[in-house]
Amino acid sequence: MKRFFFTLTIFALFIVSSYGQYDLQVTLNSPASGSPATGISGFNIAYTITNNGPNEIPAGDTLYLALIYSGSNYSLINGEAGSVSLVVLPAAVPSGASLVSSTLGINAVANLSGVSGDVCMFVTVGLAGFTSIAGDPNDTNMDNNLDCFTSVPASASIEANNQLSAVAYPNPASDVLNITVDGDEVVSVAIIAMDGKVVSNNQGSTALVADLSAGMYIYEARTASGAIIRSTFMKK
Asked: Which residue among 36, 66, 137, 187 is the one 20 to 30 A from 19 at the CA level?
């Protein structure tokens, strides 16, 4: 099966075609989602991409993939900062079907030496810029297009808390975004654009988003126990 791989420096939005709707989800396999891992040069990351439907993703559409950490996004192919990796789908991805990184031929390789904090795998269809301009209008749930683990330098240690789950509402948000975490108190919320820039810092569990442009963002909630939880939301 012939595959086409590219690396593209991020510039702008690439509008997707007007096909039916689908729900693209990325799941980290190794390291597992939410787990701590000691990063090294040449660190391998395996993942699964699933189409939760209801419609197929047509052949010829392009998957845009990147790792996001340390305030930037990185190509999966060569680790170039400010870049993404592109895969043109040689065949349609039906509802319920999954693609694993080994099948795609792109196991993410990252230089995580000395990196501390969340490392997130991100995937979308037809979006050439991970900017705050817009998300994929055909994807019904952009919240699951991002999955993260925690990179821990060899000299550090971290206690993983996989029991915590956050709820962000309203989503999409227009003026404020509220974050609640089961069993813990949210003490601050940062809003991060898809290019890795922090665009809003907020004390407490409510983030002000009225001045942000429409599109997809990452929120980073810190709790009283020291946990850090990241996920995505849409600004309308």
From this structure: 66
Confidence of residue 7 (pLDDT cuts 50, 70, 90): very low
Which tokens go with 35?
A: 């787990």
Amino acid at 235: K
Q: Which two tokens stand for residue 91?
A: 């065949």
Q: Could you check whether 5-151 and 166-235 share the same CATH topology?
A: yes
CATH class belonging to 166-235: mainly beta
1-34: b or e for each residue (b if 16 or more CB lie within 10 Å)? eeeeeeebebeeeeebeeeeebbbbbbbeebeeb
User: Could you tell me the two tokens for 102?
Assistant: 């080994």
Radius of gyration (Cα) for the chain, nearest Å?
17
Model confidence, pTM: 0.59
Does the domain at 5-151 match CATH 2.40.40.10? Answer given as no
**Domain boundaries along the sequence of the chain:** 5-151, 166-235
State whether residue 159 is helix, strand or coil. coil
